[in-house]
Design goal:
three-stranded antiparallel β-sheet; 3 strands
Length: about 260
Amino acid sequence: MNEQPANLGLDSTVAPTPAAAQPLPAPVAAVATPPALPANAPPAIPACANCGKPLGETVYRISDRTVCQTCGQAIAKLQDLNRFAGGPWMTGAMLGLGAAIISGAIWAILVKATDRQFGLVAIGIGIFVSRAVMRGAGGRRGPSIQTLSILLSLLGVVIGKGLIASWARWDETRTALGIKDHETIFRAVTFCFGALLYFSPLDLLWYGLAVWEAWRYPRAIRIPISGPYAPGQTHSAPVTATPSGGLQFDTVQPKAPQ
């Protein structure tokens, strides 16, 4: 008698339950590889910090920047504006004298119209006269232009004070001095000494500010510049000797163009 296998209720045709599905790893982004440069590719050419053109073989150093020979020589030529020249100085003196007369007259007109003296006008005289001197001198600067601007600014203040005493406030001046005859002569004398007749301690402040403005505007241009540098030299070995602390525009000697 054949024995049948025991039926345990399992179906041998049923596939086994698969294991839980695992998430797939995220795809790795492809890293772009820069194209390889050819072995004989030329190196990058440094550019001028001023014009952006290639530096070339001869360069200048201005502060911490490197400029080409053309820009360096153009900037170095500004040293000429700090040097004295008779012709431009005389032109600046004539234009500054005219500015002093005009500004003094404007001051007197303001006093005549408002019956008040504005000391701040003296500051405007210093600025106006110094600008006129620089314009007449072709943009020149330095001690010679500064001295001329100061003298003409003070002259403009004296002219303004003289016109105030001899014209804008003549009635007050005539009464104070007891003038009754020869008014023309006394007007001329009052014009010359008007700055003393109407002087007050506060005027020292205005005069000082006028002198300061006349000194400040035409001061010399000073930029630390060194060079030129010959081909193959480092920036620490300039061709021309330079003083310590950088060159000023009145001392740099630009290299002649090749």
